[in-house]
Design goal:
Two copies of one chain form a homodimer.
Chain A (H helix, E strand, L loop, with lengths): L1 H27 L11 H11 L3 E2 H7 L4 H13 L3 E5 L7 E5 L1 H12 L10 H25 L3 H23 L1
Antiparallel strand pairs in A: 1-3, 2-3
The first copy, chain A, binds a DNA duplex (30 and 30 nucleotides) through helix 4.
Chain lengths: 174, 174
DNA sequence: AAAAGTAATCAGGTGTACCTGACAAAATAT
DNA sequence: ATATTTTGTCAGGTACACCTGATTACTTTT
């Protein structure tokens, strides 16, 4: 019972956290697409930063979207200079998508930004927060696998693991 | 230096956290509009749950959007049965927007859901998480105020405080 | 009573994330 | 060599969150 109360309190704070992140983005830093990090174009950048030179088909599969949607986003990313497309030589149907240098920078910019607000935590709290996020994220992976055990999603999750392992590693390495 | 490394690690986990929340929403629980909680129609529900019977003008101001946008969202919410509109008697120009019972339930559903993943935290961790979120959120409020000290945003923030205080209180009271 | 505000509305637009259906070109299977 | 499968494209669509400009109806100011 006490559990529920405390969980509720925390849940409220998480809502608050989400909202504040949202506002900070809208009003403060004009271009920090936190919300678009995991969708559409952003998703593609993440996937490519994990594994460059993928075909559109492959990307679409990994990202769980139709090839048409994928193509659209890739076109937009190309227009923005973040990816390049070239025909595969083995199979002249396939188009290989790669990150440009610009795109690589953009991806880093998007994922490796250390939110300013983390600076208010001291070492101990940071450590606690880390553990907590590990636990929570672990549970969410399980929940996702549980609720949606399709093949696609296995790929999907696999990719996420890779992407995010990389992000974690990168920021650790800096 | 060690600080930066740890902050980076945590930042990565936060990215992961955001992503997982996103996927869990897409694929698992089909209708948990977490991402639309603080935008458009969702924002309006939140504002009304804090302070019912507001004029459209008032809502638009509090929510930092144009009256036209506001009107559009209110229309949509009305269509979905979440709000009702009635003419003010004092001023026949203004339209008072109120939550219906449905709308009130919907708002609660959206904000008071206790994420399942919180159950993996024990009492101590929950307590730690609470403190951490308080600190972080407090800092974000400051950052927002700092970066954007317009009148609108003061109102905006005020409203948020109210809304979220209420949410916090509600979940505590349960 | 006329002028100046104010609260809405209508009309039309932008950008983003998706989707379906139809089809061409290339690769593979028979 | 023909049939089938696969990769990608084109065309067109939905839904959502916004926005600007013009206009109507009502209120307040002068």
């Amino acid at each position: 019972m006490t559990d529920l109360i405390n969980q509720g309190k925390t849940a409220g704070k998480l809502v608050e956290f989400g909202m504040l992140q949202n506002i900070a983005e809208d009003d403060v830093q004009h271009k920090n697409d936190y919300k678009t990090l995991f969708q559409g174009q952003g998703k593609i950048l993440l996937a490519l930063s994990d594994n460059d030179d993928l075909s559109q088909r492959d990307l679409a599969e990994r990202l769980n979207m139709t090839p048409q949607s994928l193509a659209e986003f890739v076109r937009k990313l190309e227009k923005r200079g973040f990816v390049s497309r070239r025909k595969s030589t083995n199979d002249k149907r396939v188009i290989i998508v790669s990150l440009t240098e610009e795109g690589r920078l953009e991806t880093q910019r998007r994922t490796q930004i250390i939110p300013k607000y983390l600076r208010v935590l001291n070492d101990e709290e940071l450590q606690q927060f880390n553990n907590i996020l590990d636990k929570i994220n672990g549970q969410m992976y399980l929940d996702i696998k549980d609720a949606d055990p399709t093949l696609h999603n296995k790929y999907h999750q696999l990719m996420l693991n890779h992407v995010l392992t990389k992000i974690r590693t990168d920021s650790k390495d800096q």
